[in-house]
Design a protein that fits this description.
The complex is a heterotrimer.
Chain A (H helix, E strand, L loop, with lengths): L19 E5 L9 H5 L5 E3 L11 E3 L10 H5 L5 E5 L6 H6 L1
Antiparallel strand pairs in A: 1-4, 2-3
Chain B lengths: L12 E6 H12 L1 E6 L6 H10 L6 E4 L3 H13 L3 E6 L1 H16 L4 E9 L5 E5 L4 H6 L8 E3 L4 H18 L2 E7 H5 L1 E6 L43 E3 L14 H16 L2 H4 L2 E4 L6 E6 L2 H14 L4 E6 L1 E3 L3 H10 L2 E6 L5 H9 L3 E6 L8 H12 L1
Parallel strand pairs in B: 2-3, 2-4, 4-5, 5-8, 7-8, 12-13, 12-15, 15-16
Antiparallel strand pairs in B: 1-9, 5-6, 7-14, 11-13
Chain C lengths: L2 H7 L20 H16 L6 E5 L7 H4 L3 E4 L5 H11 L4 E7 H7 L1 H10 L3 E7 L34 H8 L3 E6 L3 H13 L4 E6 L6 H4 L5 H11 E3 L15 E8 L5 H19 L1
Parallel strand pairs in C: 1-2, 1-3, 3-4, 4-6, 5-6, 7-8
Antiparallel strand pairs in C: 5-8
The chains are: A alpha+beta, B alpha/beta, C alpha/beta.
The complex binds thiamine diphosphate, iron/sulfur cluster (2 copies) and magnesium ion (MG).
Chain lengths: 98, 387, 283
């Protein structure tokens, strides 16, 4: 769930939040659950599926609420999850750089 | 220009030096630019000389907290591209053993000088001994081969230290200079040749790009070309059993046997190229003295003396004791009736001699904790076996 | 996208020896987080990878060196620091990092640690402190808390542990920090800082060992241990390291030491330059 802002930023219309693409390399995951537990936006949950290692990798519940903080990327001991900015759509930040 | 610059690394000319000092000068002349040590009698003078001389040749002297640290630093310096050395005596040599195995396993070229004193334990620090002969060969765990040279004069402390560096660079193996307290502390005339007459050899570098480089893939001589840290090869080396890429192979039976056999074979296959001996009056000898290091000096006088009284004696002086020149000793054993082995220990290298000599009688002349053998003692032994 | 291709898209992919992945560490082991933070630090600093050397000793964490795509060396147990000393002195252009364990660095290698810190050799030590010898199956070590259960303290540990940040500070380190594996950002920042500073640095990383130590001590799952880290960590920069003992209810984290002091290598080079000048004068 996106957090409520107590006031609208002045440039809210212009600057859309960059969109996240969460990549999960399911077979690398050892199922520790760090990414799920410590995601500040609760974007991840444990999937029902078993991977090759017999572990339950995370799955994305709502990619649109990902704040691109990258905490899952940084905390994963297996390099099994990472988040990148989605190229293209509504990505003001990216356009400005170019 | 065109002016002759006096080399600071090769002090060409005639000098009066102790064995320890000559060893330090030999190392510098060979290109040694890193010394990691820890003081111990009777090898301390090597460290002291290196501490003074290294900055003069833009090399590094570091006194570590113990000999374990010293050998570890030397392996590190070797992998960082320097010719590196440490010097010690029995107690320190014992402390180094685990990392000598690491140097063998990671094929680090380096030189270890052991100025042998009386052991076991602290033993007799200022007295000579030849008691580390077996430790030099077998001191670390596992199967492996190293090279060990035994100088018998101060001149050889200089010459053989250079040889040690060259062999270590060719075979990527730790090479030991096994001298004893007498040779280390004795002062003699030393002739240091002009720099251009000193042959120095550097490790073979890879001739492939970093992408293609396999750090432990041997060449036809069974020695892998060596990249060093900082050269862009991004390689990994480990004391674990590893394959040619340097990847640990901790449970693979094939990789274990492949690696360990190669580490041994690269020395065994090249024994004839490595081994140096001196043969004196052996052609027609009925009896041979086999000696190395300090005892070979008395052995030489003894053989001459024996000849003067009609005993056809000859001397086989081993300069290389490891790898042991088995074939050579076997050939001599076939020709003579007996071999006498004077050693300053309770009988170490004599076991190798017995193995090689097969049915020929081999007798040990052991001496401990005093002056080395006197020629007359060896002559007596020669008399006894030829009677 | 195939998994293998996806692996290569990971922002840190180029720093890993992909062919050796997955690593050997257990599910939830903090070593992977430490490795991750280190690589991210390298990435952000845009370091020239040809100049980085990673050295490790023996232990679970000791395998880290083999996973990083730079020049790396896996020494014997306890000897990473003197090996690294040799490397750094022999080639001062290299940045030399030691990544190793509490047992490796502070039990068998303890003497090397204090002397390298005293000399102020320019090497960066990152210690995974999991309070035990993980690789050999969970024996007690020099950081095991009093009263803890390990396979060799079946009646509880009766040895007092080292306070690593105090030890490092007292021995002369110029930069000393401690974080848990939960504070990944700050851990990464400390690693970056250590990499940029000249002199001997210690970054202690308090790390879960869910399969062994945490299990014997009934600390729950790896997530539980991380939550516990969160609960009891107190960030206090500049805190007196002598008072920063790790306790059950409190782990002081932060930067404890950040001082300037000439490194051994610098003094060595100055001395050598002086000797060289004198020799030139003699001619
Ligand atoms: C000389 C020597 N003694 C003992 C061992 C066995 N050993 C291997 S790893 C290890 C302990 C490692 O503990 P630590 O450094 O804390 O690393 P961890 O496994 O906890 O990551 C021991 C005792 C060894 N390899 N070498
Ligand atoms: S942090 Fe990594 S290993 Fe742990 S559950 Fe998430 S993806 Fe899997
Ligand atoms: S035993 Fe402990 S330290 Fe070793 S890999 Fe497993 S969790 Fe990590
Ligand atoms: Mg540990």
């Amino acid at each position: 769930m996106p957090q409520k802002l107590w006031r609208e930023p002045l440039d809210a219309q212009k600057t859309k939040l960059p969109k996240a693409e969460i990549c999960i390399i399911t077979d690398l995951c050892k199922g520790c659950g760090f990414c799920i537990e410590f995601c500040p936006k609760n974007v991840l949950e444990q999937s029902e599926q078993l991977n090759k290692k017999g572990k339950h990798p995370p799955e994305v519940t709502d990619e649109s609420s990902c704040a691109l903080c990258g905490f899952c990327t940084a905390i994963c001991p297996e390099f099994a999850i990472f988040v990148v900015e989605k190229k293209g759509e509504n990505n003001v930040g990216n356009e400005e750089k170019e | 220009m065109g002016m002759k610059k006096k080399s600071r690394s090769v002090l060409s000319g005639v000098h009066f030096l102790s064995g320890d000092l000559a060893c330090a000068e030999g190392a510098i002349a060979a290109g040694c630019r890193f010394f990691g040590g820890y003081p111990i009698t009777p090898a301390t003078e090597i460290a002291e000389r290196m501490a003074r001389r290294m900055p003069e040749v833009e090399g590094i002297y570091v006194q570590m907290e113990d000999e374990i640290g010293a050998i570890a630093a030397v392996i590190g310096a070797s992998y960082a591209g320097k010719k590196a050395m440490t010097a010690t005596s029995g107690p320190g040599f014992s402390l180094m053993q685990e990392n000598i195995g690491l140097a063998v396993m990671t094929e680090a070229p380096l030189v270890i000088v052991d100025i042998m004193r009386g052991g076991p334990s602290t033993g007799q620090p200022t007295m000579p001994g030849q008691q580390d002969v077996m430790q030099a060969k077998w001191g670390s765990h596992g199967d492996y081969e190293i090279i060990a040279l035994t100088p018998s004069s101060v001149q050889e402390m200089f010459d053989l230290t250079i040889e040690c560096f060259n062999l270590s660079e060719i075979y990527r193996v730790p090479v030991m200079l096994l001298a004893d307290e007498i040779i280390g502390h004795m002062w003699e005339r030393v002739e240091i040749p002009p720099a251009k007459e000193i042959a120095t050899i550097n490790r073979k570098k890879p001739d492939v790009s970093p992408n293609e480089y396999l750090p432990f893939k041997p060449d036809q001589n069974l020695v892998p070309p060596m990249a060093c840290f900082g050269e862009g090869y991004h390689f990994h080396a480990t004391g674990l059993t590893h394959d040619e890429t340097g990847t640990p192979k901790t449970v693979s039976i094939e990789e274990q046997s492949k690696l360990v056999k190669r580490l041994c074979e690269k020395i065994r296959k090249n024994v004839d190229k490595i081994v140096k001996v001196e043969e004196v009056m052996l052609e027609d000898a009925d009896v041979a003295v086999l000696a190395y290091g300090i005892t070979s000096r008395a052995a030489l006088s003894a053989v001459r003396k024996a000849r003067s009284i009609g005993i056809k004696a000859g001397l086989l002086r081993l300069i290389t004791i490891w790898p042991f020149p088995e074939k050579l000793v076997a050939n001599i054993a076939q020709q003579v009736q007996a071999i006498i082995v004077p050693e300053m220990n309770c009988g170490q290298l004599v076991r190798e001699v017995e193995r090689a000599a097969k049915t020929t009688a081999v007798s040990l002349l052991s001496k401990l904790g005093e002056d080395p053998h006197r020629p007359i003692e060896i002559v007596k032994a020669l008399r006894k076996v030829t009677k | 996208m195939k998994e293998a291709d996806l692996m290569l898209k990971h922002p840190l992919a180029k720093y890993l020896r992909q062919e050796r992945m997955p690593h050997i560490w257990c599910e939830g082991c903090g070593n992977g987080i430490l490795l991750n933070s280190f690589l991210e630090g390298l990435d952000e600093l845009k370091q020239n990878l040809d100049r980085i050397v990673v050295v490790s000793g023996i232990g679970c964490i000791g395998r880290a060196a083999g996973y990083i795509n730079v020049d790396s060396f896996h020494t014997t147990h306890g000897r990473a620091i003197p090996f690294a000393t040799g490397v750094k002195l022999a080639n001062p252009n290299l940045k030399v990092v030691v990544i190793s364990g509490d047992g490796d660095l502070f039990a068998i290698g303890g003497n090397h640690f204090i002397h390298a810190a005293r000399r102020n050799v320019d090497i960066k030590v990152i210690c995974a402190n999991n309070f035990n010898y993980g690789m050999t199956g969970g024996q007690y070590g020099p950081t095991t808390p009093l009263g803890s259960w390990t396979t060799t303290t079946p009646y509880g540990n009766i040895e007092h542990p080292f306070n690593l940040v105090h030890l490092a500070a007292a021995s002369g380190a110029v930069y000393v920090a401690r974080w848990t594996t939960l504070q990944v950002r700050r851990l990464k920042n400390s690693i970056k800082k250590a990499l940029q500073k000249e002199g001997f640095s210690l970054v202690e990383v308090i790390s879960p060992c869910p399969e062994i130590f945490d299990r014997y001590n009934k600390l729950g799952t790896a997530v539980d241990v991380m939550k516990w880290f969160k609960l009891i960590s107190q960030v206090k920069h500049g805190y007196d390291p002598a008072k920063a003992e790790v306790a059950k209810n409190k782990i002081i984290v932060g930067e404890f030491v950040d001082i300037e002091k000439p490194s051994y290598g610098r003094l060595l080079r100055e001395m050598t330059a002086n000797v060289q000048d004198k020799l030139k004068g003699e001619k």
